[in-house]
From TrEMBL:
Protein name: Putative ATPase
Residue ranges that the Swiss-Prot or TrEMBL entry lists as coiled coil: none
Transmembrane segments: none
Lineage: Bacteria, Bacillati, Actinomycetota, Actinomycetes, Propionibacteriales
Pfam annotation, one family: HTH_77
SUPFAM superfamilies in UniProt: P-loop containing nucleoside triphosphate hydrolases, TPR-like
Source species of the chain: Kribbella caucasensis
InterPro entries the record matches: HTH_77, P-loop_NTPase, TPR-like_helical_dom_sf
Residue ranges of domain Winged helix-turn-helix in the record: 286-361
Length: 811
């Protein structure tokens, strides 16, 4: 019998079995496409290895694939479970056990045969699939065994599972990734069909028959699956917890996932019964140097570049030159995900990151690693900061965007530790990136928190940060009250600073304006500044200030056109878009709506390049109005839709309030009073009554919407008060048109003509983009006749606008 066995002449009982795969008790969810792909690999390659982190579903994918092949394999598919053998265990003996041959070969001639020889003798001529499961702790022995038996058994194919590859020539690899998660904006149908949620629902329904699957429950399930990175084992452990807790309780406690997820199946491998045991298994297989690097990588958020890892992970006998090799080893062991899109980046799944952070705390290195992380990203932002005002800004913005989460977490760590100097240094480096890169809400929060952190900070750093803080005006309710304080501080520290940041130059004219100096005279000295970006921005501000003050005309256009040319020469997209936007508005006021829309389109293209999505919103909103005035309702609707899509991606109150106010005006033009009122409520909620331009615009529109003259008069008075406080000529001019509408409704035609003329005088030219101005003028001309209209208009240009308003509101 023993000779027959050695020759592979198995007995009838053995021949009747084609597999030792056990029937599964649960359905297979979410990986059918992977099964098909692995089948194809097995058909093309004699050795295929499924690699992936613990708990990713490698074993289940292997066995499910093998089941589909049983009809094509004359001698079946056989599972060899290596998890139970030690690091020095015998892979061949485990294979004999898997084939059901170990006990049969213990006596007689076979007892002297080497185990691998026994395996070869048993399967030499057979066409079968061996599944070597869980090879990672015996990877070298498994590789040697696979290499030998594949060389001797030409009809054999091997499917291995491991947290790292076997490293044999000819080995095909299939990365087993976590289950797919729904997109952030996915609807209920997409959520239900996502593999990760499907698995949670399936396993949860087995332990909780009363689990209702409504929209809220689905949203909570997504939270759970996302927190667990879509890892099948973690999701199954989470589902088991639903025997004794609700889905909301589960989701809210996943911050302590290792303590929570401990209720695995009693029949599972010991390391699959708890989440911690699963990761412990991988940890024990690492060298000391690999453990050091993995621990320190836990301080990163959103992954690490090679350069960052080399700076942060050195120490404990880990030299900088060795970090790349160690990162590669950790990636090969499925503890890191190495992204290869451009420069390599390394990231950990959330569960691994939390585990490594715990290990970092255990050895008392959390602060050491955090400070190394903070130092690196402070240096990176300070290197990038001046380049963000040059042609290289797109490349540097991409560099910083890749590490956005790291920059934010470094700042939050410094703030939490009360490290004022460190927080302010990072704010000085990152402030312009936050503004330019579309992160204004977060940037405002972090910079403000840094300025409020008590502690010693150098004058140079304070001057830079306060100059940047001024950028974040109109960030929310009440911020206008802080503007003067921030400008004063920026100016004061800039006067004693030894370092010169471009923002400090801008603090000087702003301070002079607060002191009552002529705004144009305050800005003009900067026309000769040594920094070309400051010179370009100064020209832009001079053009804008002339418009604000009602000193428009060709000189304002000249400043704006010069600024545009200088920003183009620098390649600075934000400045280009800013100048184009100002020019577009001046063109629109003259009635050249199509040309204005083209300017806005070019501005949007420039600002989109750098990612300042907040600025796209007001541009698209204004385009929507201008297209409507052109009679192109389709283009107007498309611009509105694009503005709304952008709004879904930002939280900057100023941009969102501008959108709401613009939408309200467009709705009023269309005759939709209800929608106009709703949008006005949104604008007020976002910025409150303290934002003067929003308050003026809101009451102006409410004055048009009011059916009752008394109510309309009340809103006109409030609008005029806010406009006077704002001091912006264009705002005042627009409000005067509204008061003219009130005069018209009261049959005061001469007064309406006076107010229209005053509006033009304040602005410096008629506003052809304001349909009410044309409507009121046409009506009044028809009522008065040309001579009386001209006479009343002349009076309006010679009378104070405030006096005209007082007379109208009093009548």
């Amino acid at each position: 019998m023993h000779v027959a066995l050695l020759r592979g002449e198995l007995g009838r009982r053995e021949e009747s079995r084609k597999t030792n795969l056990r029937a599964e008790l649960t359905s297979y969810v979410g990986k059918n496409a992977d099964v098909a792909a692995v089948r194809d690999l097995i058909a093309e390659h004699r050795l295929t290895t499924l690699i992936g982190p613990g708990g990713s579903g490698k074993t289940r994918l292997a066995t499910e694939t093998a089941r589909t092949l049983l009809g094509d394999l004359p001698d079946g598919a056989w599972l060899v479970e290596l998890a139970a053998i030690g690091a020095d265990g015998d892979v061949a003996q485990a294979t004999l056990a898997g084939l059901g041959l170990r006990d049969a070969l213990l006596a007689g001639e076979a007892q002297n045969a080497e185990p691998t020889e026994r395996v070869i003798a048993a399967i030499r001529e057979r066409e079968l699939l061996l599944i070597l499961d869980n090879c990672e702790h015996v990877v070298e022995a498994a590789a040697a065994f696979a290499y030998r038996v594949l060389g001797e058994c030409r009809r054999l194919r091997i499917l291995a599972t491991s947290r790292e590859s076997l490293g044999i020539t000819g080995e095909a690899l299939w990365p087993v990734v976590p289950l797919a998660l729904p997109e952030e904006d996915a609807g209920p149908g997409e959520i239900e069909s996502s593999p990760a949620v499907q698995l949670l629902r399936d396993r949860a329904s087995a332990v909780r028959k009363d689990l209702a699957v409504d929209v809220q429950t689905l949203a909570t399930m997504v939270r759970v699956c996302r927190a667990l990175d879509g890892m099948p084992l973690a999701i199954e452990l989470a589902a088991a917890r639903l025997r004794t807790m609700s889905i909301d309780q589960l989701a809210n406690r996943l911050d302590d996932r290792f303590r929570l997820l401990t209720g695995g199946s009693r029949t599972a491998l010991p390391r699959h019964r708890t989440l911690r045991a699963m990761v412990d298994w991988s940890w024990e297989l690492l060298t000391d140097a690999e453990r050091t690097v993995l621990r320190r990588l836990s301080v990163f958020s959103g992954g690490a570049s090679l350069e960052a890892a080399e700076r942060v992970c050195v120490g404990d006998a880990v030299e900088r030159e060795a970090v790349l090799e160690l990162l590669t080893a950790l990636a090969e062991k499925s503890l890191l995900v190495a992204a290869s899109d451009g420069a390599p980046r390394y990231r950990m799944l959330g569960t691994i990151k939390e585990y490594a952070a715990d290990r970092l705390a255990e050895v008392g290195e959390s602060d050491l690693a955090r400070h190394a992380h903070l130092a690196y990203f402070t240096e990176l932002t300070q290197t990038a900061e001046p380049q963000l005002r040059r042609a290289e800004q797109v490349e540097w913005l991409a560099t910083l965007a890749a590490d956005h989460d790291n920059i934010s977490s470094a700042m939050r760590g410094a703030l939490a530790a009360g490290e004022a100097q460190e927080a302010m240094r990072l704010a000085a480096g990152a402030g312009w990136y936050w503004w330019l890169g579309g992160h204004r809400t977060e940037g405002n929060e972090l910079i403000t928190a840094a300025t409020e952190t008590p502690g010693e900070v150098t004058d140079d750093i304070r001057a830079t940060v306060y100059a940047l803080v001024v950028l974040f005006l109109n960030s929310g309710p009440g911020d206008e009250h802080h503007a003067a304080e921030w400008i004063h501080k920026a100016y004061r520290f800039s006067q004693i600073s030894q370092r010169r940041h471009p923002g400090m130059a801008l603090a000087v004219p702003l301070e002079l304006m607060l002191q009552g100096s002529d705004p144009l005279a305050a800005w003009e000295p900067l026309l000769d500044d040594e920094d070309p970006w400051v010179r370009a921005l100064t020209r832009l501000h001079l053009g804008k200030m002339r418009t604000i003050l009602g000193h428009g005309g060709r000189e304002a256009d000249t400043y704006l056109e010069s600024a545009l040319a200088e920003f183009r020469a620098l390649g600075e997209r934000f400045g280009i878009s800013f100048a184009l936007t100002e020019l577009a508005e001046r063109i629109a006021v003259r009635g050249e709506f199509a040309a204005a829309c083209e300017h806005y389109e070019e501005a949007i293209a420039a600002v989109t390049e750098v990612g300042t999505i907040e600025d796209v919103i007001p541009m698209r909103s204004r385009q929507a109005q201008l297209y409507w005035l052109l009679g192109d309702e389709d283009a107007s609707a498309a611009a509105t839709a694009e503005a709304l899509r952008c709004a879904e991606r930002v939280t900057w109150p100023g941009a969102l309030a501008h959108l709401a106010l613009s939408q309200a005006e467009l709705a009023r033009w269309r005759g939709d009073a209800e929608e106009a009122s709703r949008q006005l409520g949104v604008a007020t909620t976002l910025l409150g009554d303290e934002a003067k331009h929003i308050r003026a615009g809101t009451h102006d529109l409410l004055g048009y919407l009011a059916d009752d003259l008394g109510e309309a008069r009340k809103h006109r008075a409030a609008a005029c008060e806010a406009a006077a406080e704002a001091g912006h000529a264009a705002v005042i001019a627009r409000i005067l048109v509204g008061v003219a509408d009130l005069a018209l409704r009261c049959d005061q035609y001469e007064q309406a003509a006076r107010l229209l003329a005053a509006s033009v005088a304040v602005r410096g030219l008629p506003d052809r983009s304001h349909p009410d101005e044309a409507r009121i003028e046409q009506t009044v001309r028809r009522r008065l006749g040309e001579a009386k209209f001209a006479e009343a208009a002349q009076e309006g240009t010679q009378t104070s606008w405030t006096q005209l308003v007082e007379v109208t509101l009093a009548s």
